[in-house]
C-alpha cells in the first residue's frame, strides 16, 4: 500500500479520542494506522507554547495546518525554479547539502532551504529522476528518515578519537600500527571496492578486493587478511568515519586490534593511507573493472608498491623495513 498523509478527519478523530483519554493503540486501530504513526503525529504536530502552556495539546485543525506548512517547506525546491537550479548547480560542483544551505544563509538570500530539505529533494522522485545522489560526497541509494538515523557519535565514540590515540602511534615509534581506507570506483562497479592498509612505521601496503561495502563484510575480510601476522604486528588501525567501518568493535575480540578514528571530514589525519591510495591509483584508476581483479594481480600491485625504495625509510623498501620489524618479534 502506498504511503498517504493523515487527513483532517483522521486528525480530528485523534483529537477527540485523546480528549476521551483513549490509549494510542486504540486510536491507531480506530483510524487504521500503525500506532507509531499516531505517536509521531502527536509528537510532531501538537501545539506547544511556553507562554500559553495551558493551551498546549493536540488539536486536529492546527495539526493539519502545521503538517501542510511542513510539506510546503519541503516543496520549495519543486516550486521555486531559480532556487532549485542554484542548489543543483552547487551539487554538481561537489558541494554538500550542508554547505549549500549554509552558504544561502551566509549570503542572506531571501529564500533559503535547510540541508534536510535538500536531502529530501535529492532522494525524492524529482531528485532520483535526475540522479542527483551521484553528486553527493557520500552516496547511498536511499536515505533513512532523520529521526531513524543513528548518531555517528554512538558508532564512533569519543574515546576512540584520534586525539585519544597514544603519542607513540603518531610519532611512528612502534611497529604494528596501521591506517585503513576503501578505494571506491565508478558506479558501474556497484558495491565492489578495494580496501587499502598501510603500516605506519614501515609504509608496508596491503590491498585486497571486496565485493561488498557492508561493514560486516569489510571487517571480516580485513581480519582474514591481518590474522596471519603476529599480534604485535597488528596493534591498531586508524580509519575515517565511513560507515564501512562501523563494525570496528569486532577487531579487538577477533584479532586483538584496537581501532582509532579521524575527526569528521579530516582524511589528512590518516595521511599515510591517503598517500598509498594516490600511488595505487596509477594501477587502479576509477574506471577499473574491479570484478576482473585477480588475487595475483592485486599481489603484483602490492609487490611493486612495497618494492619501491622510500626516502623516509633511508631508501630501504617497505618490504625490507617490514621484514626487519618482523624479525625483531621473534
UniProtKB/TrEMBL annotation:
The residue stretches assigned to a coiled coil in this entry are none
Protein's name in the database: IS30 family transposase
Kindly indicate whether the keyword Transmembrane helix belongs to this entry: no
Q: Which domain of life is it from?
A: Bacteria
InterPro entries this protein is in? Integrase_cat-core (IPR001584), IS30-like_HTH (IPR025246), RNaseH-like_sf (IPR012337), RNaseH_sf (IPR036397), Transposase-Integrase (IPR051917), Transposase_IS30-like (IPR053392)
- Integrase catalytic domain residues: 162-326
The alphabetized list of GO BP terms reads: DNA integration; DNA recombination; transposition
Name the UniProt key words of this record, in alphabetical order: DNA recombination
Q: Name one GO cellular component term.
A: cytosol
Task: Check the record and name the NCBIfam families matching this protein.
Answer: transpos_IS30
* Gene Ontology molecular-function annotations: nucleic acid binding; transposase activity
Amino acid at each position: 500500500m502506498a504511503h498517504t498523509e493523515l487527513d483532517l478527519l483522521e486528525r480530528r478523530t485523534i483529537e477527540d479520542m485523546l480528549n476521551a483519554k483513549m490509549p494510542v493503540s486504540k486510536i491507531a486501530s480506530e483510524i487504521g494506522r500503525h500506532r507509531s504513526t499516531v505517536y509521531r503525529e502527536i509528537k510532531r504536530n501538537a501545539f506547544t507554547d511556553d507562554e500559553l502552556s495551558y493551551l498546549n495539546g493536540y488539536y486536529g485543525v492546527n495539526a493539519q495546518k502545521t503538517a501542510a506548512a511542513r510539506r510546503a517547506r519541503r516543496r520549495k525546491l519543486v516550486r521555486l525554479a531559480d532556487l532549485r537550479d542554484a542548489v543543483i548547480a552547487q551539487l554538481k560542483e561537489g558541494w554538500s547539502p550542508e554547505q549549500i544551505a549554509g552558504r544561502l544563509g551566509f549570503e542572506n538570500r531571501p529564500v533559503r532551504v535547510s540541508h534536510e530539505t535538500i536531502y529530501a529533494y535529492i532522494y525524492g522522485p524529482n531528485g532520483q529522476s535526475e540522479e542527483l545522489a551521484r553528486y553527493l560526497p557520500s552516496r547511498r541509494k536511499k536515505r533513512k528518515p532523520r529521526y531513524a538515523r543513528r548518531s555517528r557519535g554512538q558508532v564512533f565514540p569519543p574515546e576512540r578519537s584520534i586525539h585519544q590515540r597514544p603519542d607513540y602511534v603518531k610519532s611512528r615509534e612502534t611497529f604494528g600500527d596501521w591506517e585503513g581506507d576503501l578505494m571506491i570506483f565508478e558506479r558501474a562497479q556497484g558495491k565492489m571496492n578495494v580496501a587499502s592498509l598501510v603500516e605506519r612505521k614501515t609504509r608496508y601496503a596491503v590491498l585486497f578486493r571486496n565485493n561488498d561495502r557492508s561493514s560486516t563484510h569489510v571487517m571480516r575480510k580485513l581480519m582474514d587478511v591481518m590474522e596471519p601476522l603476529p599480534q604485535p604486528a597488528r596493534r591498531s588501525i586508524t580509519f575515517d568515519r565511513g560507515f564501512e567501518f562501523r563494525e570496528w568493535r569486532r577487531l579487538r575480540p577477533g584479532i586483538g586490534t584496537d581501532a582509532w578514528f579521524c575527526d569528521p571530514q579530516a582524511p589528512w589525519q590518516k595521511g599515510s593511507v591517503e598517500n598509498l591510495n594516490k600511488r595505487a591509483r596509477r594501477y587502479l584508476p576509477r574506471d577499473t573493472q574491479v570484478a576482473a581483479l585477480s588475487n595475483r594481480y592485486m599481489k603484483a600491485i602490492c609487490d611493486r608498491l612495497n618494492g619501491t625504495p622510500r626516502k623516509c625509510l633511508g631508501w630501504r623498501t617497505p618490504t625490507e623495513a617490514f621484514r626487519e620489524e618482523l624479525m625483531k618479534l621473534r
